[in-house]
Amino acid sequence: MDNRLYAGTAFRALKFGCGTSFRSLRLGTGTAFRCTGLALSLLFAASLSAQTDTTRTGELREMTISAKQDQTMGMSRLRGVEGVMIYEGKKSEVVNLRDMTANLSTNNARQVFSRVAGLNIWESDGAGLQLGIGGRGLSPNRTSNFNTRQNGYDISADALGYPESYYTPPTESLQRIEVVRGAASLQYGTQFGGMLNFVMHQPPQKQALQFTSRQTVGAWGFLGSYNALSGTVGKVGYYGYFQHKRGDGWRPNSGFQFNNGYLDAHWRPTERLEMGLELTKMDYLAQQPGGLTDTQFEQDPQQSLRERNWFRVDWNLACFHVDYKISERTRINNRVFGLSASRQSLGNLSPANNLDFGQNRDLISGTFNNIGNETRLLHRYALGAFENSLAVGARVYRGITTARQGEANNGQEADFQFLNPENVEKSDFRFPNFNYAAFVENIFWLSPKFTLTPGIRLENIQTFANGYYQQRVYDFAGNLISENRETEDLQRRRSFVLFGLGSSWKATQMLEIYANFSQNYRAINFTDLRIDNPNGRVDPNLRDERGYTADLGLRTRRNTWWYADVTAFYLAYRDRIGQLLKADQPPLYNDYRLRTNISDARNIGIEAFAEVNLWHFIAPKDSLRRLSLFVNTSFIDARYVNTDDASIRNRRVELVPPMTVRTGLSWVHGRFRSSFNWAFTAEHFTDATNARRTASAVNGIIPAYAVADLSAGWSWRWLLVEASCNNLFDARYFTRRADAYPGPGIIPADGRGWYVTVGVKL
């Protein structure tokens, strides 16, 4: 009786939370659901035909779902089934932060993601305010080519219209980071890069109150404070933290103030039912020192030529989730999530080779308000002698983004006010969008060692743009000749189907060979279309990108002293959006980046990771000490193909290092641990024409660079002491050339910096 009562409560909660969403799905994508039903029928028929004449023993193959993840020395992978999601036959990586020695106080991505193969990492600030990573040759710009999530729900500005991430959870608050490559498009959305999920710490089960505090001091006035409370009282668990960071920055005019708070409370009235609420608040203000030309960087990379540029972000997230275990074989998860956020950029957008004469500054203001619902169900069922797993889900999402650009005052302070707020000078747009989607994936066990995982995703995307922009023409002296206001009312509606197929052969308990093929799709961002930037322009006739990814990989592990994963991949892009170097007509001849559909592109590569505990060969039974060596490398050949434009035919795709190598050595002895990491990134280009140097420095090469980091930590009962040195050998390098904020021009990476952390856990 009690179980029926709780089941009824759970389903009423689900109905209340997403009934409207599913009615919208039923009305808006009835054809999609009919296709889903057909897909399920086909999958079921395929499973029947896959049966063999083997005598049935009546026993199911054992499959562990709720156990902890496989452990290694800081790196593992997702199981074939995790919660209500399927990862069988997919390329997945899990960064286990509790097993790493790294500079967590500054979110140092170079160290945190050192074991994830194939990543290009941008370093725009030394405090980890924003994360910029791209995989397999995709742009690292604010991680926009990943579907970025926190505990399984979206945290980017707008998953469709503006998929950039201005908020990155503090590494000190994370339990692990999950990375699933392009095959994640079927279950998580249409991004080519895959899915990136930040998983927060969970409260201790047997402790009513746990207090954690980490206080950090570092170079250039850095102060960081992280304080958390967590615990479990009866059937209620909670975890919350507050983090504050401030610093002056390595370069002049690069100070910042950062605040972040988080609260997670969940209630488990029975073993079958759990409900939870998560709230996140983040805001920061950062001064931006601007970009440099190549000559200026060679003279002094630490100099700053802008002192009036500022950036402000306010991020507010909420998520309510219900998890219900219908039976031992079936469970359902429902999430309702929302975002209310804003970002504002203020300053001088002129190229780095232009002087700042104190004119009125440019202000770009954007707001992001969205709400979504995702419901997923996982069912395990017997078919023949094996137990298979079926995952189905649906998504409803609405986002409204606004973008305004106009003039602000000519002062130096962070005054984010338009001079004419009712009628801004450059553009004023509203970008609504809607997304309805449904997916199904199924793991078929064809033998005790071999699986096939087919999947299908149905998408309906609707994007709109309403507003105006100003067209201005200047003479050679910079005087305004003419000005026209253009009003736009654009809309795009499209529906499509994505297919995928994965397979896995577990040759032995220690060796697995996997392969995967998944279609991908990336909608254009209307928010790109009407930003007035003298260093970059956007083709108003941009088209959506289509393509697919294919993986063939091998992974192996032996207990806890050896782990390796090697993958060959092929990424096909149709109508790839990229950057072309262009120049104005006479008499100006100003060079600029044009963002447009350049041509088709293909990325071919190999990414490999291996880690071994060398101490195992010295003292196999010694569990108190560990000397581990890891090597992470990738080789990528990315080129433009199928084009009649001789200037880019067979040219290298921009922002794709042909080779990256990251390696490290870590030592653990009882309470003491230390690590040394070294990272190398080969020379690569920033535009499709492969220009090596330009006057504005917006385009050109990113020279090869190598960086080393050293970290150490010691713990005793409730006390923790950590120290780290970033950029140990004080290398002078840069990872990006910006066409707008925080540039434009070369953005130098930080020099050598030290950090010391003292922490307690009570």
Number of helices: 6
CATH topology: Maltoporin, Chain A
The tally of structural domains comes to 1
What's the alpha carbon Rg, rounded to whole Å?
26 Å
Please give the CATH architecture.
Answer: Beta Barrel
Structural class: mainly beta
Please give the alpha-carbon distance between the first and last residues. Answer: 41 Å
Q: What's the pLDDT, averaged over the residues?
A: 86
Using brief descriptors, characterize the structure shown:
762 residues; mainly beta; Maltoporin, Chain A; 22-stranded antiparallel beta barrel; 6-stranded mixed beta sheet; 6 helices; 37 strands; 53% strand; globular; disordered N terminus
Describe this structure as you would to a colleague.
By secondary structure, this protein is mostly beta strands. It has one domain: Beta Barrel (Maltoporin, Chain A), CATH 2.40.170. The chain is 9% helix and 53% strand. It has six helices and 37 strands. The strands form six sheets. The chain has a 22-stranded antiparallel beta barrel. It has a six-stranded mixed beta sheet with strand order 1-4-9-10-7-8, with no helix packed on it. Strands 2-3 form a two-stranded antiparallel ribbon. The chain is globular, with a radius of gyration of 26 Å.
